Amino acid sequence: MRELLSRAEVVASGKNYVLALYRDDLSSVFPGMVRFRLLLEGAGRPVVLFSTNTYEYSPLLSIDAERAARQAAADWEAAILAAPGGLVRPDEPPSFHAEPPHGDVLVLQGSPRPDGSCAVLAKWAAEAAQSVGRQVEVVFVHDLDVRPCIGCYQCYNTGDCTFDDDMTRLAPAIRAASLLVVCSPVYTNTVPAGLKAVIDRAQAIHARDALQTGGPGAAPRGGLLLATAGRMGTENFSCVQSVVRAFMANLGIRYRGEVLVDDLDARRDPRSVPGLEERVRSTVLSAIRAPETTRSTGTRP
Ligand SMILES: Cc1cc2nc3c(=O)[nH]c(=O)nc-3n(C[C@H](O)[C@H](O)[C@H](O)COP(=O)(O)O)c2cc1C
Known about the structure:
The chain is elongated. It is of the alpha/beta class. The chain has a five-stranded parallel sheet, with helices on both faces. The chain folds into two domains: 2-86, no CATH class; 105-293, Flavodoxin domain (Rossmann fold, 3-Layer(aba) Sandwich). It is built from nine helices and nine strands. Flavin mononucleotide binds at residues 111, 113, 116-118, 185-189, 228-231, 236, 264.
């Protein structure tokens, strides 16, 4: 729901513009979330001059979103009146979701070891998907430059993250994949830090989908977890399972299953675990056959 908070007519370079400050109720996204947007209207498509939301402001701050937005509206009006010729169209936001990714099956290999047990599982998963004609991309997460999320909530203003790093390319690939396979070792009961950074930064995908559609992306998608642990016992995976499930649920990705391989401190090589390769391959193939992921090769949402 959008409400007009203020409206000011300004003349710049002989043209009439309107500076309009809107209040958008985003409580369907997060409880009590409100976004304020200052738009310049009157020159074709409105230009967003300033955007902020209530979740950006922690309780210790002496300013809140509405005051910041009203201040921005006053500042912009004064700046335009002072230098009418200086009104230029701001650049387009970074190409966060511009490039179509390759691979409609995306494998996130989350172990920092390029030749460890997760790498073996990732390879089996990729081969299984390729064997039925799927385009596959395996991403070695540890190679990426992905800064940890700083909780600025600015992605809920525009759908774009404030950082421009390797997540700029990975986010569209995660969003577009019909099947997302997360391979993760257990590190101190949870996922390794690099993978966690990707998971947290995927909040910007949630933001973009929420701003565009009011919920997770419309395209049906499935997800799998392939996880390995040194210790024996499935209880070692409980945190990894819950992190990866939450990650997928947040993006509207249906959790289609998992393969958990424990006791690798003793077993060492996953290739020596009886039936494991077949289990990974068949788990991937049945996820591909599931309704969410039956899109034909190369199709994008
Ligand atoms: C920093 C670190 C923390 C670990 N923490 C756990 C743990 O909490 N529980 C466990 O069962 N294994 C733990 N492990 C063992 C790994 O999960 C196991 O060796 C796994 O197979 C590694 O996968 P990879 O070969 O793909 O890297 C840890 C290993 C490392 C390096």
